[in-house]
TrEMBL record:
It is a multi-pass membrane protein. Its main location: membrane. This is G-protein coupled receptors family 1 profile domain-containing protein. Belongs to the G-protein coupled receptor 1 family. Keywords: Cell membrane, Membrane, Receptor, Transmembrane, Transmembrane helix. One of its GO terms (biological process) is cellular response to hormone stimulus. One of its GO terms (molecular function) is G protein-coupled receptor activity. It holds the Pfam family 7tm_1. It is found in: Cell membrane. The chain crosses the membrane at residues 7-27, 47-73, 102-127, 147-166.
Length: 237
């Protein structure tokens, strides 16, 4: 339902472009070059549509919603206690480190969204609300406007990169695919990567407990021998 609402809302906001945008001859000495520009019945309607339809609905409102949602996610993650059998300082530090990574990713997503679209909206705010365009602005706008548009559009591909960059298991899985040299077929990710990470975390916790509790009898780490053997046999680790 949310996806359907977002599509309907986006189509409704951009519908005026169909009626008020047209190809216009800008350079009198070169009538063959035409640009797609908005032609409104009066200046007031042009300003209102830019402020409400573009600036508020397409930039400020999404920025506020993203910030609010990510703040709620941050509160939920920070208050959450990850269930584990061993409650020691080592595990607590690992949990805190994981929470910090999530918070950094959320902050980075919000900041990149704001910075990616800010130059484009700044340029159009100057054109729509700043009065007559100066001569030096006429020379620089044709250069910086396409760059600002590309920067804003790049935000659509930044988030997946961020999610992958802050996800250690994703990076390991990607490296495993590259090393496997197989573009097709099924990679045993869970056995080769997930169990390895889990075994490593368990060994760290066991090592910490045995070094800090002298009264505890030393014993083998609680690692599933079959899982470790499987990792050794299939990955060569």
């Amino acid at each position: 339902m949310m996806i359907v609402f977002i599509w309907i809302f986006a189509i409704s906001v951009t519908t005026p472009w169909v009626f008020f945008f047209d190809l216009v001859v800008v350079f009198e000495d070169n009538p063959h070059v035409r640009l797609c520009l908005d032609l409104w019945p009066n200046p007031l309607s042009e300003v209102l549509y830019f402020v409400i339809g573009n600036l508020i609905f397409c930039y400020i409102l999404p920025m506020v919603l993203i910030t609010m949602c990510y703040i709620l996610i941050w509160i939920k993650v920070w208050r959450r206690s990850i269930p584990t059998d061993t409650q020691d300082a080592q595990m607590e530090r690992m949990q805190q480190k994981s929470k910090v990574k999530v918070v950094k990713m959320l902050v980075a997503v919000v900041i990149l969204f704001v910075l990616s679209w800010f130059p484009l909206y700044l340029i159009f705010a100057r054109i729509k609300l700043g009065g007559p365009i100066q001569k030096w602005e006429e020379d620089i706008f044709p250069i910086v406007t396409p760059l600002a548009q590309w920067l804003g559009a790049s935000n659509s591909c930044i988030n997946p990169i961020l999610y992958a960059f802050f996800n250690k298991k994703y990076r390991k899985g990607f490296v495993a695919i590259i090393k496997s040299r197989k573009c097709c077929g099924r990679l045993r990710y869970y056995e080769t990567i997930a169990l390895q990470s889990s075994s490593t975390s368990t060994r760290k916790s066991w090592h910490y407990n045995n070094n800090n509790h002298a009264s505890i009898t030393r014993r083998s780490p609680p690692v599933d021998k079959n899982a470790v053997s499987f990792i050794f046999n299939h990955t060569g680790v």
